[in-house]
Design a protein that fits this description.
The complex is a heterodimer. Chain A is α/β, with parallel strands linked by helices. Among the domains of chain A are: 171 residues, Rossmann fold, CATH 3.40.50.300; 83 residues, Helix Hairpins. Helices cover 65% and strands 8% of the residues of chain A. Chain A contains 31 helices and 10 strands. By secondary structure, chain B is of the alpha+beta class. Chain B has a single domain, classed as SH3 type barrels (Roll), CATH 2.30.30. In chain B, 16% of the residues lie in helices and 39% in strands. In chain B, β3 and β4 form a beta hairpin. The chains are: A alpha/beta, B alpha+beta. Chains A and B meet through α3, α11, α12, α16 and β10 of A and α1 and β5 of B.
Chain lengths: 737, 79
């Protein structure tokens, strides 16, 4: 990989060790974010240049996912490990939290055992000093035979030195074979490991990728990936090796009541302890930082005060996002409205105009109007994460959410998606990124779209006004509560069926509270937003055009439209034909006639389109929930964006353009129609609450879940559940009345 | 002194780890955090609903659920 003279580096470290800050300090804006194919783990790469004494060195740095060790239990760790063995970076920069060196060195030892050249950055030295720690980094460097540099990445201190040290290390070791460190694992394991190493070496078993003793240790640890690779490579030898580990494992269990994996960890920590005992860390009793953090925790996670403050923080996040985001969203709306009108006046009436205005401009405009929300929400989430408060939210909420197979961190996506009414599932689904446990994350992002998002609210307000006049507020409150009930219930169902399995261990660090750096927040926010914009430009635009086409084609035969067209022309002529001094009432009457004629034309077009035909075809089925074809069309349109439901229903009812904010005409129509019974109204409310997420959300689900499979599943599952509930309500209501 | 389950520790009590009987991912995560026999822990907090628990170990704080703490045996250290 190290062609063209660039030095390739991999950046590794524990979560909360300041790795991301270090990556930003090293590469600045010269970075690129993507995903590893097929999984949701991020792949960040960046470039750095270092000029020392007239010599210029170029670096290509890959930011590995944060990990505590190099086992095969999580995607993150596997990605990190595979990157090292497959891409063979010239060196690894390992960022450690100098304040908890012992635990951080646990990962270092595993790099050394793999044999890859490692340069250590003892980061957060300022905090460590405040804690009263002094670290002899020269001695540590000598004992580990690896360069060690003290850094404070937040302030940019030592960053260049660390890069230079990694560069020197990479150059001095270039072309050499990896030289793995050998640690003793005690009298019970060592002989078996030696025996296995010999066998592995003799057969050249997987040794093209991995060092032989490392493989033996991984067999001892019962590493799933290596076991599978082994079986595929040489089944006989694999079985021999597995027999050895089974023997040792049995021995460990019968004599010491432990497992080889645990013994290996004990010896690794023992190795670290023996290093540190040689006078590397000196500690004065000055635990200021931790005490400050502890005192904050006494308040922020207090039994009564903690949850109250947390509720306040969550509501504040919500308030800031949607009140601050409103204005730029409105501006974008106005801009795209203006763009649409301009296009309308420039392009002659017809299909091209319709495609450009309704398909492209409305589609992209709708999608880009989310950008302010996404910017703000990710800024705030980054702040909560970097400050350490997000971990406390998870800590406080875990007991409740665990009952439903979720995780304490699930609360944020639910709230943002509309858990208090009027959020948005797009940033909500994207907020599930803070969940590191896969199953809980999946259950969260599949159920968060049930919440009453801002786009569904106008529909609810309209229907609540019709069916529960004077009790709209109570109705909306009950709708929000049912959203929570359905989301948690569905999560429970999913976690005991399709996403079954024990909950991911909660064991996690509660990092000390820290003030986030603005630079880190901005980079983080921009990355997320840019990813979203890129999606908007491709997938979402394509789907938007498809939906436009479904609501436009096939166009009715000219012959069928002729009478309607004539009616419009006639009404137009009538309006135009009045002399200037005609009285207002007559003029208004004529204009109403024209609007009605145009609405009839629009209805005919919609009814004949693919969506219209689908709406009619579905009517026999949807009748059991009380929905006739006009409602069906509106619901199909709602997949594009929930705010479209009202306007589409308006067109289907031949009411012309219905403004969702002032849908009096539609409300009046529904109120005066005897087929719109209360059960039918409730069934429709619940159906809209629960059915398929809008396609922008579906694309967000695809991005976070890592496959189209789950995105499609969310469409089918949510719609099926919504339909079941709607039928039950409608039929139940019909029986009662 | 006899070993008790980590769950039974009171707030503010210190203890030394005796054994961890957890395998697989849970066992690995516990060990990753430096919870190995011999290390000292102190209960520094409990979540509002008594679960999970916050532990101080050496230089940092971690949290784990009660049912995860059940796999860990400790002996109380007197101050």
């Amino acid at each position: 990989m190290s062609d063209s003279g660039k030095i390739t580096l991999a950046l590794a470290g524990n979560p909360n060790a300041g790795k991301t800050t270090m990556f930003n300090a090293l590469t600045g804006a010269r970075q690129h974010v993507g995903n590893y194919p097929g999984i949701t783990v991020e792949r960040k790469e960046g470039f750095a240049t270092l000029a020392t004494g007239g010599e210029k060195r170029e670096f290509h740095i890959t930011d590995l996912p944060g990990a505590y060790s190099l086992t095969a239990y999580t995607q993150e760790e596997l990605v990190a490990r595979n990157h090292l063995v497959d891409e063979r970076p010239d060196a690894v920069i390992h960022v450690l939290n100098a304040g908890s060196l012992e635990r951080n060195l646990y990962l270092t030892v595993q790099f050394l055992e793999l044999g890859v050249p490692v340069a250590l950055g003892l980061n957060m030295m300022d905090e460590a000093r405040k804690k009263g720690l002094t670290i002899d980094s020269d001695k540590l460097s000598e004992l580990l035979s690896a360069p060690v540099v003290e850094t404070v990445a937040r302030a940019g201190k030592g960053v260049k030195d660390l890069l230079a040290a990694a560069g020197d290390l990479a150059e001095s070791r270039k072309g050499d074979a990896w030289s793995p460190l050998t640690i003793s694992y005690g009298p019970d394991l060592d002989p078996a490991i030696a025996e296995m190493t010999e066998k592995i070496e003799a057969a050249g078993f997987l040794t093209d990728r991995y060092p032989s003793r490392w493989l033996a240790v991984k067999y001892m640890e019962g590493d799933e990936q290596i076991l599978t690779l082994g079986r595929n490579a040489d089944i006989d030898l694999a079985q021999e090796l597995e027999a050895v580990t089974a023997r040792v494992s049995e021995h460990c269990q019968s004599t010491m009541n432990t497992y080889p994996e645990a013994v290996i960890a004990d010896f690794r920590y023992g190795f670290i302890a023996s290093l540190l005992k040689q006078g590397i860390v000196r500690r004065e009793p000055l635990r200021e930082r931790i005490e400050m953090s502890d005192r904050l925790d006494k308040v922020l996670t207090h039994r009564a005060l903690g949850p109250a403050l947390m509720l306040g923080v969550l509501l504040l996040v919500y308030q800031i996002t949607f009140s601050l985001g409103q204005h730029p969203m409105d501006w974008l709306g106005l801009f795209f409205g203006w763009l649409g009108e301009t296009a309308e006046s420039l392009i002659p009436e017809g299909l091209v105009q319709s495609l450009v205005v309704s398909g492209i401009i409305d589609g992209v405009g709708g999608v880009l109007s989310f950008v302010p929300l996404i910017l703000i929400i990710f800024f705030l989430i980054a702040f909560l994460e970097d400050s350490g408060y997000m971990a406390r939210i998870a800590y406080m909420m875990d007991r409740v959410f665990r009952m439903f197979g979720l995780h304490g961190s699930s609360v944020m996506p639910f709230i943002v998606s509309g858990g208090v009414g009027g959020g948005c599932a797009v940033p909500g689904v994207m907020a599930s990124r803070t969940l590191r446990s896969r199953k809980e994350k999946l259950a969260t992002l599949l159920t968060a779209p049930f919440m009453a998002c801002g786009a569904k609210l106008p529909v609810f307000i309209l229907l609540a006004g019709v069916f529960f006049p004077h009790h709209e507020a109570l109705a909306l409150f009950l709708i929000t509560l049912s959203a929570w009930a359905f989301a948690l219930f569905a999560a429970r169902i999913l976690r005991s069926t399709l996403i079954r399995g024990p909950s991911t261990p909660f064991v996690m660090e509660l990092p000390p509270y820290r003030m986030p750096t603005l630079r880190g927040l901005i980079i983080h926010t921009w990355e997320r937003t840019w990813q979203y914009i890129k999606k908007a430009g491709t997938v979402i635009l394509a789907i938007s055009i498809l939906l436009w086409a479904a609501m436009t084609f096939p166009t009715p035969h000219e012959a069928d439209l002729a009478p309607l067209n004539e009616a419009v022309a006639e009404a137009q002529a009538h309006v135009d034909g009045f002399p200037e001094d005609t009285d207002q009432a007559t003029l208004a009457q004529a204009e109403d006639d024209l609007a009605m004629a145009e609405a009839a034309l629009a209805e005919a077009g919609l009814a004949n389109s693919l969506a219209g035909r689908l709406g009619r075809a579905l009517e026999p089925v949807s009748q059991s929930a009380g929905f006739e074809w006009r409602t069906n069309i509106a619901l199909i349109g709602g997949v594009a964006a929930k705010e479209v439901i009202i306007s589409t229903l308006g067109t289907a009812y031949s009411l012309g353009d219905v403004d969702p904010e002032e849908a009096f005409s539609l409300a009046g129509h529904i109120r005066s129609d005897p087929t719109w019974t209360t059960p039918r109204g409730i069934a429709l409310i619940l159906f809209i609450l629960l059915y398929s997420p809008c396609f922008v959300t579906v694309v967000a689900i695809r991005q976070e879940a890592g496959s189209w499979k789950w995105a499609l599943f969310s469409i089918v599952f949510n719609t099926a559940l919504a339909f079941g509930v709607a039928v039950a309500v409608y039929q139940g209501g019909a029986m009662l009345l | 002194m006899s070993a008790i389950c980590l769950r039974e520790l009171q707030l503010g009590q210190k203890a030394r780890l005796v054994s961890i009987d957890a395998q697989g991912e849970l066992g690995r995560r516990i060990r990753d955090m430096g919870l190995v026999p011999g290390s000292e822990v102190e209960v520094v907090g409990r979540a509002p609903l008594k679960d999970p628990v916050a532990l101080r170990i050496k230089d940092f704080t971690l949290s784990l659920r009660n049912n995860e703490a059940d796999h860990i045996l400790v002996e109380v250290v007197d101050e």
